[in-house]
Design a protein that fits this description.
Chain lengths: 445, 224
């Protein structure tokens, strides 16, 4: 019976909102395999995000700046608190940490080329620094991770900044996992592990626990690198007020706050979707922590997790961040999820825009793979060019919005330039609901 | 022998001198439990710390020979690449964590997580070690002349663990192996390198990875 000619004695077939098609497929998959689902990328659920904020723009009470004529600065200096050599970037959009191992050497090179052309930094990942990425990244941040895979003091000294990774937005409280099929001989050698085995990364650092120890660890890192390099501390967004306060206490020059939309190379689906908070909810308490300590703009705040457009960049800065980092968006700019690969994605049971089996190493775009044939598909020069284009667009879009708000530098954007479109966003950001002067929890109401 | 005195020179200056020298003999006086002492050395210097040192003593050492005439805090010789570090007293937790090369000798006992995430270095402990020692240790050797605490070698990869005394318990995927002539040779040579001549290589047991956790499998879920 079709809807138009149904048997009126019966209702239509109806899907459950609780047991929807995807949920049913999850239960069926679990029953068939007995193993939790592991995938790449970040959360896929709909969350309060930067789309729930709007800029007010200038009018009678504020003067806008003339687009294309009046200067709107975008540069940012990171690491001004203690480091002898802070990092100077032309754009506040940086490239987040992604490992060689999770990504091909070509993809790492392309990220370096694109970031360098745009005047920004790129970041190593679990597994250490490759000569390719050092060569092609004018400014390279070296991640110091719990696993210490490939951790080498010579590379530490070659880096422009050091990022101590406590956690990441996709899995605050979780370690890493690189499945055996991606452990090529080169990856295995860098990590000092047998070829082809599942590689686990610890979730806690091996030689310190808690912020008091971390303070001493930072002292050691500074002593080894002549107090030159900015020390970043990266946390996944969960309890940002306390985590950022403790990072500042431990001696961070820069704090990196990664929301739950941030991607991962391979993690349990249940972890990605159910742990951590959205970046929109995390920025205000992080900025509050810095302000309460008198350290806002002295310890720089880099936020990440779902940054896609110049609007996202501008909104993050207006909320009080000093810079943002992109990961998933950078991979898309390189060629991930391309419609040209539709038939190959179909062979893997996916479609352009849905592909998330980054853990398998069969990426037809040649990005999240160690298969030499697949990896060769990505031309690092062309990929770098696409990334540079994208970074340029993000920067110009952020400038456009800043000028519209009358700001001569993107860092002059402020919460006062924004309103919230939804009650949730208003509550999380403490920005007024559009058209009102109220937000949930506002004192006096 | 050049003397560097922490009572008259700040840590930063002393580390800078040691990091920039290419050779020679140095003695550090009045260490007083100072953290991050003699870290990041790169040249084959001989350094003696005459007293106790704090966290991360001789951290990330490359090529230097460092002797500590006292006890050390957490993470002694962490991520050492080469050279040697000899602690005459006891070491706190995470001794030799993630070390990739060189030799760490501890005359006394070592705390918890000794040799955690070891990546190729050799560690010889004359006394006993605490719990979770050699956790996720990847390669290299850990020699324990005394006893080992709980969960020895948990989630072990390819590190060999030699124990003369008692093991309180083994961690997930760690099992006793048969001592091969090659194992015995490695053990004897390490004891010799550590200057331990009064303890014989006989009577040690060797432990390694059962390799059942190398590929995730649901039947092993209880071990994770």
């Amino acid at each position: 019976m079709t809807k138009n000619h149904h048997d009126v004695t019966k209702t239509f077939p109806r899907y459950s909102a609780t047991f929807d098609e995807f949920t049913i497929s999850q239960i069926q998959r679990a029953a068939a395999t007995g193993i939790y689902d592991i995938r790449g990328g970040g959360t896929k659920r709909k969350l309060p995000h930067f789309d729930d904020l709007l800029f007010l723009g200038a009018s009678m009470s504020r003067y806008p700046l003339e687009g294309y004529r009046e200067r709107c600065g975008t540069d940012v200096v990171l690491g001004t608190r203690f480091a002898k050599k802070p990092i100077y970037l032309k754009t506040p959009v940086t490239i987040a940490g992604m490992s060689f191992g999770a990504l091909s050497a070509q993809a790492k090179e392309a990220l370096g080329r694109g970031a360098t052309a745009a005047g920004t930094s790129t970041t190593t990942g679990d597994g250490g620094m490759t000569p390719e990425e050092r060569r092609h990244s004018a400014t390279l941040v070296y991640q110091y991770l719990p696993s210490r895979y490939g951790m080498n003091p010579d590379d530490l000294r070659k880096a422009d900044a050091i990022e101590i990774v406590i956690g990441q937005g996709a899995k605050p409280g979780g370690g890493g996992m690189l499945l055996g099929q991606k452990i090529s001989e080169r990856v295995a050698k860098m990590r000092d592990l047998p070829v082809g085995i599942d590689q686990r990364s610890a979730c806690r650092h091996p030689d310190w626990t808690g912020p008091d120890d971390l303070e001493i660890k930072i002292e050691e890192l500074r002593e080894i690198t002549n107090h030159e390099k900015p020390i970043y501390i990266k946390v996944g967004a969960s309890r940002p007020y306390y985590d950022i306060s403790l990072a500042v206490k431990a001696g961070a020059d820069v704090v990196v706050l990664d929301g739950m939309q941030g991607g991962t190379a391979a993690t349990q689906e249940v972890f990605i979707e159910h742990v951590g908070i959205p970046i929109l909810a995390a920025i205000r308490p992080a900025v509050q922590a810095l302000q309460d300590l008198g350290m806002h703009r002295k310890v720089q705040l880099v936020v990440s997790g779902g940054i896609r457009t110049g609007a996202d960049v501008a909104k993050a800065l207006a909320l009080g961040a000093d810079a943002v980092a992109i990961g998933t968006a950078a991979l898309i700019a390189l060629g991930d999820q391309s419609p040209d690969l539709a038939s190959e994605y179909a062979n893997l049971g996916a479609k352009p825009g849905t592909y998330d089996d980054w853990q398998d190493g069969h990426d037809p775009a040649g990005i999240t793979t160690q298969d030499p044939e697949l990896a060769q598909r990505l031309d690092p020069i062309l990929g770098g060019r696409r990334l540079a284009n994208y970074l340029s667009v993000l920067t110009m879009e952020a400038q456009t919005l800043a000028r519209a708000c009358g700001k001569s530098h993107v860092h002059n954007l402020e919460p006062e330039d924004l309103v919230a479109l939804t009650l949730e966003a208003a509550a999380m950001t403490q920005l007024p609901l559009a058209g009102t002067n109220w937000y949930p929890g506002k004192p006096g109401y | 022998m050049k003397t560097l005195d922490l009572r008259t020179a700040p840590l930063r200056e002393i580390n800078r001198i040691l990091q920039n020298e290419h050779e020679g003999f140095y003695e550090i006086r009045n260490s007083s439990g100072q953290h991050a002492l003699a870290v990041g050395l790169t040249a084959p210097l001989s350094v003696t710390i005459d007293g106790h040192a704090g966290y991360y003593a001789a951290g990330m050492n490359q090529n230097a020979r460092i002797i500590i005439n006292g006890n050390v805090g957490q993470g002694v010789a962490e991520n050492m690449m080469s050279g040697s570090v000899h602690v005459k007293g006891c070491a706190s937790s995470s001794a030799g964590a993630t070390a990739q090369g060189g030799l760490l000798v501890i005359d006394g006992d070592a705390g918890a997580r000794c040799g955690i995430s070891l990546k190729g270095a050799n560690i010889v402990v004359r006394g006993s070690v605490g719990h979770m020692s050699a956790f996720m240790a990847q390669s290299g050797n850990l020699v324990i002349c005394g006893d080992a605490g709980d969960a020895l070698g948990d989630s072990l990869y390819e590190t060999r663990i030699f124990v003369k005394g008692k093991v309180r318990s083994l961690g997930a995927d760690c099992e006793e192996k048969e001592m091969t002539p090659q194992d015995l040779e490695i053990l004897s040579s390490l004891l010799n390198d550590a200057g331990i001549h009064d303890i014989s290589a006989s009577g040690f047991h060797v432990y390694g990875s059962a390799r059942t956790l190398y590929h995730f499998h649901v039947d092993n879920a209880s071990a994770y």
